[in-house]
Amino acid sequence: MDLELKLESNGERHRSIPSSRRPPSSKSSNYSSSTLNTDNTFLLTKYDDFIDDNYIIEDDANSFEEVETSIYKEILLYYYHRIRKRISILVTLPYIVNICGLLLVILLSLTLFYSSNNSSHLNIIKEKDRYTPLHKIVIPYLDKLYPNYHSQFTNISQNIFDPRFSPALLLMYLNNHIIHNEYKLEAKFSIGFSWDDWIDIDSKLSYDDEYLLDWLSHHSDDFTDDISKLRDLDCKTFALIYGCELNVNFHSKCVDLNQDEKKNYPYKFKITGPTSAKIKEPGRLLYAGSYLKLSMPPPERIFMLDVFGENGEGSLMINVDSSKNENRNEIFRNKDVIGKFIDLEMKNSNRNENEFLENGIYIKSLRNKLSNTLAYSDVEKIIYKEENINIDRDQTYLSLNSRNKDPGMTLSNWEFSDFMWDEIEFLDELDMKADVLDTKNYDSIMNDRLSKLEQFRIDNDYHPKYFSEADLYAVSYGSHYDWRFFSGSFILNDYRKSIIHRLSRTWLRFCLENEIKTFIAYGSMLGWIRNGLTLPWDGDIDVIVTMKSLNLLARNFNQTLIIDYNEKDGFQSAMTGYLLDINPAYYSRYKGDGNNVIDGRLIDISTGVYLDITALAWTDDYLKSIQIGTNKKLKKLIDKDYEMNQYFAVEGDDVYYDTLMFELRKLQDDKQLIHCKNDNVYKISELSTMIPSYFEGVRAHFPHAYEEIIWRLYPKALTRITEPDHVFDDYFTLWINTFDCPGYVDPVGNLYANAQMGQCSNTEVLHEWKLTKEYTSRHLQMIEEKNWDHYTLYENSESKPFRIDEFFLLYASTMEISEEQLFNFYTQ
Fold first, then answer.
1. CA 571, 574, 576, 578 torsion-angle sign
2. Which end of the chain has fewer beta carbons closer than 10 Å to its terminal beta carbon, N or C?
């Protein structure tokens, strides 16, 4: 049976190199309960049995590459014996069985030998030249785990929260679990979860003393209590200091804690939900940190994007079980758990302590190890993207892109069935399914949630507002951040671009893998037309999905944490997590009070920056439910020059307006008029053929009528090369900030008549140009040629990241890497 292994917690200690004695070679069959528990208990198999002698190479202590070969050999022998056993039941000729089994072993051995000598050497030493220093992940507590190890990394581990660490430990944990579970991954496998592992919550909860001093300088005469109370915050004091003392809604979402309830939490207040209160920024950080620490539910599952196959052929969906971490303690970032993982990694790779610490851990090598293990494992649940409607709740599964290896992106045809939506029919079908299906089926769970929500709407004539932003006192910046993950509004423009860069790339990959029909929309589409990139002043990004795809997202992926392990992203791989959050009111396609026009969001959990998701649907009575006379968007769908032509209509002559109404009704009757909940309208014919292109370096579909759509939305934008504080430089093919390059415009912002493009010498501009010039050049060629039906875009044609993230600026600075060296790492 599995034994419970209590972790040591005896303070600082020097971890010795694990013993190399051979454990018993016999393998228990009960490895399936290997899980992570949070009361500082790591549930594994018996520790001596956890490291099998098949994973230790004693003949050559320096031959790390042999470790992977030995894993293949064991997998080979395991499958050989398993196949032999199964065949012997069916075939009565043992000699034939033995010969076939031997031939199979030889064939697989040759295949694995070739593979291991060409692509499976995952050791750090051999791959060292292909990595940059930034690939090495910061391991927390190195100074405590290895006090005698003298390196700058022991200091870095104290000061830097590397968001890649938990994604790396998750890879390591899954690989160990599968190997020591006889190469099986169960459909019922699940893990515990802690937001502390994935988000730097402590930094949000740190008290801002400078703000307190500033506040006291203005309020010292009004405040007569002990100043120490201002640091030991309860709800009343929080509201007083951060400007929301008169807001009733704030007090309804704040609860005072007693001393016993505080645990490892520094304050006396607890946040239970969103508030409409305008809160000063230091308070908003505390508000978000408190909710994440004490109240935020875990995601329902983790989608490990592109974790399988050489070119991201598949992803792994891991179910999350909230009951495995009811105390909300750290799991992966627990010091003793980290120590055990390091011990296991050193034993598995036959590396000593100094070798391991010097080489560290990299996402790429850990991803490849798990991919190789999955390739030769018995995965109980496999879903192909063509079968994603068969996903069931509470199951872990391997999701494969396609039965064919990367067929490439070509023209895509979208049809009426992708948009058609009947709310009543949908709710009736869902209710009917709930009567006949198991209560844990996705559809029955959805029915329970939506039935309660629909009853609320019947009683109140509106849906409760779902999404909330980090509303800030006296400023508007907070509207661009989800309140739960808010980490500060002062984000430099270059950093914001890097966040949106990663966010959009992950969204497009996720949608492509799961057959979600989407395109980049509105201002973001305008950015694509210009140079294939987002507009540099955009605070978020807008995407559109079909109604059928939105329903699929709500059914299969709501409350999913997406981790992008794509190898193309290099050391930026798995840089953060993205929470997919679907508005439960998505099933209703009418605007209502306007508080739920956003159907979903993909949220960067490190910053709160989000991607807005809205769906387009055809509904039978749309024109009857809106005020057509005041809706300019509808009229511009018929006449893109409506705002000008309306003034030329003869007064008292209704022919022009009657013609508009006739054409609108005809579009509706012909099942061409589709709309979002904010009454943005399109014709299905504009989206019936979607063209293949790239956005932020990743493959994406766009409407073939993109110019017509943009002209309707932004009539002058395609011909304008100046925007507030920006000029579009045709030479660099970039929007240039005029503060970086003042030579383009005069003091009032007008473009100089003799402004020379490509003459800006700003270092940041030149860096971005060098990073993007090949990509933007290709994009402009595609836009000019418009030979969309001739393109087949493959995964290997996508670009590496070309935005320098703020985390790596800090990381490189701590390691004393110059800005020029950092730039070179991005261009390698």
1. positive
2. N
